[in-house]
């Protein structure tokens, strides 16, 4: 998992635009020409202030999403049905934490320290993918997350892997490889419930009904209301629009849900054969922003668990480090 | 008392944290670059980095992060701070490498000369 298409942006765009004006126009033109030629940008390269800021925001939130995203699934490790499912879930949750590490490293190459990112998460300044503010109530929820949330994340991550920033692309390459296992094991567990007993089917249908709206929220608000992203598209920071990614997801996965005899809680959901695009009822975007602000069912628990882990791990992190070996700034090179 | 679905979370005394905890700068240790060897005889290749308090623990974290699936026979770690690299802006110093045909087998057309010689000696 778990890079959602939607990246939270706090207000204050006017300040950025002032910074933007300070970029050397000659360097900016050369930078944009490199991206247009398909070249990758590396940590030591000149880059516009706004490019750096947006990438830190994007990669950092992606990293937080991986770490927080492991929490609803981790809940079910002790109660996974059977040894094979338990092994797969442990492996998947470990992968997600590993993805968080890879992404933090990629963000660090842009100059923001690991500690600053963790502190911004704990204080609520940095966000993470909104879907993880919902609880995984039953085992069927875990199969819906493993199959459909991972599938949605893959749509986004495969797109982002073709972006312009080298360290982020390299991290995503490894992540996408591991995600293919996540998707497959999720699909497998999903099919087992869908083709199982009446009780299993009912449990899965219930989970699907509850998760459908968060899944539709996953790629972010529709393009018509989404803030301007032409510059980010030109700089290959954002690789596809929210609606395009949502459509790509629906095209690939709705048939896989319907073929198992399951239904989705949206009577308007259908593919328009003329345009080739999927049509659906607009999910509740007010609710989406309400949850981002911290008022979802699990926001407080997720952050409290992270805070607990950081607080209780602090003494051993300090005990393990010899002060004379501590570097003033510890940042990865690539 | 928490009201989580997770029994492990309910066992934590979460509400005791005062909500203002923050990590100190440098608390996440130093950074080490990781090099992965896929099979004996192959080069070690750079695959990423880990945070660790020392090289020994960096190796253990590297095994978890980069050696948990697929082939791996060995890993190296080295402090990121110890890596010396050229500035990316200086990459033009390599720009005329492809022009140095005198350093390359393709720069020497022996068959042309042999064929010319054979044609002349007939």
Give an overview in words:
The complex is a heterodimer of chains A (334) and B (122). Chain A has 334 residues and is an all-alpha fold. Chain A is built from twelve helices and two strands; from the N terminus they run H-H-H-H-H-H-H-H-H-H-E-E-H-H. A two-stranded antiparallel ribbon of chain A has the order 1-2. In chain A, helix 3 (49-74) packs antiparallel against helix 4 (83-108) and helix 4 packs antiparallel against helix 7. The radius of gyration of chain A is 21 Å and the shape is globular. Chain B has 122 residues and is an alpha+beta fold. Chain B has one domain: Phenylacetic acid degradation B (Ubiquitin-like (UB roll), Roll). Chain B has three helices and three strands. Chain B has helices spanning 7-11, 55-66, 110-121, and strands at 30-37, 45-52, 74-79. In chain B, strands 2-1-3 form a three-stranded antiparallel beta sheet, covered by helices on one side. The longest helix of chain B has 12 residues, at 55-66. Chains A and B meet through helix 4, helix 5, helix 7 and helix 12 of A and helix 1, strand 1, strand 2 and helix 2 of B. Chain B: It comes from Chitinophaga rhizophila. Chain B: This is 1,2-phenylacetyl-CoA epoxidase subunit B. Chain A: This is 1,2-phenylacetyl-CoA epoxidase subunit A.
